[in-house]
Amino acid sequence: MNPLDIHNYKLGSEGFLSMYLDQYQLILGSDLENYAADESLIFNKENPSHIYFILRRPKVTIDPNSFRNEQNSVKFDFLIHGKEGNDTLNMVAEFPEAKTPLKLITKYPYNLFEIIDETDESHLFARPSSLIDHNIILDNVSPAVLDYEILYIGQAFGQNGEREAINRLSSHKTLQKISLHSLTENPESDVWILLTKFSQVSVLFGLGDDLVDKESYDKDKDLEFVDHFFSNNGFKFSDKQKINLTEAALIKYFEPKYNIEFKNNFPKANHKSYSEYYNLDIRAVNIELDTSELKRKLYTDKVPRTLRHSKMFELKDDKDRFTLFSFLQPT
Questions:
Q1: Which alpha helices (H) appear in the chain, and where do they start and end?
Q2: Tens digit of pLDDT for each residue in 63-104?
Q3: What Å distances lie between residue 202 and 15, 41, 104, 110, 184, CA to CA?
Q4: Rounded to whole angstroms, what are the CA distances from 169 to 40, 90, 127?
Q5: Going by C-beta distance under 8 Å and a sequence separation of 6 or more, which residues neighbour residue 124?
Q6: Sheet of 298-299, strands arranged across
Q7: Which burial class, exposed, middle or buried, applies to 233 when counting CB atoms under 10 A from its CB (0-12, 13-18, 19+)?
């Protein structure tokens, strides 16, 4: 049914929010301590990341026996590890500035390598697992094997907002548990950390007088609601409540296997961690993630692989209030 065909809504204005993935950075779990000390990261004290994803995907290493030098180019193979054996990815790299033959420097477990010339000048220093995400053409390998499975979603937020995700993760029990399980149950896989920052878009939807039930319409409440929107350039909430709501919605949507809270109790009106949204009477919240730049997809057992994720949650199931669901549902 078209929501504009209904003429007995009890509110003349409705508020909707979209929390969208604004910034993100991937870190190999074993590199976490090094990144925590790196001041050149996207996220730092001035620009903190408070929501993080713990991910898993196959290990990628270089095959040292595959290296071949051909004038100013080299050929080598990456091995994508799997439970039933390894897939091979053929790689070619050109170094037109090299004046002497090139050679490969690597050592077990071959997850880090360097290409140098005879003068010991370095031309490439990289992890195969990071370099592979910049390669669009995957020879002999289905791109799906390099997608990231979401195992856990969490947050780090101090009393004054000073605690960053990367600092909390260095001693995070769940990360240690997942890493231990991967070593014993999925030795062919690596654990990754996705640091994220979500931003807010506020939407105010005003209904015409002909759509409102004149008897139940509370004009003063409606005016107060609209005034809050325009006085704050959108709907204003504390940073802590924004993070709480975003985390809860993400967990409910993806249902990662290591998360417990919020899987079955979101949204919930009496949940104090995001009570401000209910107090202001926000109608619905939409969660959006776009990892197109990453070229890899996120997924869980519940949610299939895709580059773009979007899910709207109604905070109140009121039949006599306007909803965007009717517009969003396919016809």
A1: 32-36, 128-131, 165-169, 173-185, 219-231, 239-254, 275-280, 325-328
A2: 999 999 887 889 999 999 998 889 998 888 889 888 889 999
A3: 7, 29, 52, 48, 45
A4: 18, 35, 22
A5: 93, 95, 113, 114, 115
A6: 298-299, 148-155, 51-58, 189-206, 13-28, 284-290, 308-314
A7: exposed
* Residue written as token pair 């050149």: 40
Confidence (pTM): 0.85
- For residues 77 and 63, the answer to whether their CB atoms sit within 8 Å is yes
DSSP letter string over 273-317?
GGHHHHHHT--EEEEEEE-GGGT--EE-SSS--BSEEEEEEES--
Strongest mean pLDDT among 22-26, 142-146, 210-214, 225-229: 22-26
DSSP codes, 170-207 = TT-HHHHHHHHHHHHH-TTEEEEEEEEEEEEEEEEEEP
The residues facing 104 across adjacent strands are 115
Q: Could you report the per-residue pLDDT of 100-120, keeping only the tens digit for each?
A: 899 999 999 999 999 999 999
Phi-psi group of 140: left, alpha or beta (phi > 0 → left; psi -120 to 50 → alpha; rest → beta): left
Are the CB atoms for 140 and 186 separated by under 8 Å? no
Q: Which two tokens stand for residue 284?
A: 């619905």
Q: Phi/psi zone of residue 224: left (φ > 0), alpha (ψ -120 to 50 degrees), beta?
A: alpha
Q: How far apart are the first and last CA of the chain?
A: 10
Q: What are the CA-CA distances from residue 54 to residues 26, 119, 152, 194, 204 (Å)?
A: 10, 41, 5, 6, 34
